[in-house]
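User: structure tokens for this one?
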Amino acid sequence: MISLADLQFMEALARAGSLSGAARSLNVTPPALSLRLKKLEQVLGVSLVVRSSRRLRFTGEGEHLVSEAQAMLARMGALTDLLGKEGGALSGPLRVVAPFGFGRLHVAPLVARFAERHKAIRVTLDLSERPWTDSEDADVVVHIGAIRDSTWVAHVLARNDRWVCAAPAYLDRRGTPEDPRDLLQHDCLCVRENNEDVTLWRHRRGGRSGAVRVTPTLTSNDGEVVRNWALAGLGLMLRSQWDAGPFVKRGELRRVLAPWSFEGADILALVPARRGISARVTSFVDFLKSSLRSRPPGR
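Assistant:
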């Protein structure tokens, strides 16, 4: 007989496209999952997948089982949400993916508060260098910056400007830029993230917009590393207000070119467009909105 765990296994396998990916989402080892697949095929008397070195491919019977598993699990999830609403309680799994820096400082404490309020919800928080691309089975992805992907529905959690900042020691040594074009004569520090063109610093003042192509002296994919370089007086950085704001308040960094607005990177909650939004996902997104808007990060 096929069990609920078997349905969840097949759904995870289809979503991940590999045994290793399904194993990660189910928190088990690949060998254990491979053994489970063999046992399920023995019970059913059919082959469910064609194994190759590149990617798993489902047989006709496997595709049929996956389709039925997805439909049944969706109905069960909807029923759980419906009963939870009627009983006043939310329950079930909730997987959240967020970037390392912002996730550690802001998302993790909010996840803990949300879980405390809704004890029947089992929350998993995964921090990732690229949360948008590491989100194949996520319910909510916290993302910073623009997104152009119709497979996601974006909810703005908080507005987030980007500031050009440097340590006072650097500005005392090299001078303070008075115009964006002055950045060409300065040491610039860049954060490589979200596949953005990180050396093109776009700006706007009044009705006029422009951009400066900087040549970075240092570049990293870790925002904290770049911020620490700026604190050490190694150059100017273009960084999110949520990250730079507290250091500017304490005087450890100084904001420059304030009359110009540099391209912002709003804080978003992304929800898969292909799924119906469950009550627990809606509740969590609303919780993030109210929490981050009442106390905007970096302000």
